[in-house]
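User: Here's a chain of 92 residues. Predict its fold as tokens.
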Amino acid sequence: MGRLQWFTPAGSAPDTTYWSDPGNHALAWRIDGTEFSDPSSALYVGYNGWSGDVDFTLPSPGPACAARASPCATSRAARCSAVPPRSSASSC
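Assistant: Prediction complete.
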């Protein structure tokens, strides 16, 4: 993962059409903390600059998060929230 990645609310990378459309008022970005010597694997920010609701689809957490995912977590958010590296003995 690069230091900074941009996303549409649908979770895909914005293309020229998305960037050029003045009707698009929502954007998301993910910063890879490991690129800045931060123990956090990533920070995801969804920004809605409009008065209506926007649903954001989270992009894949990437291989670093998947490798650290807790076997006890029930959601992607729970699996990727500051989960320490697995040890050989894990308990729920």
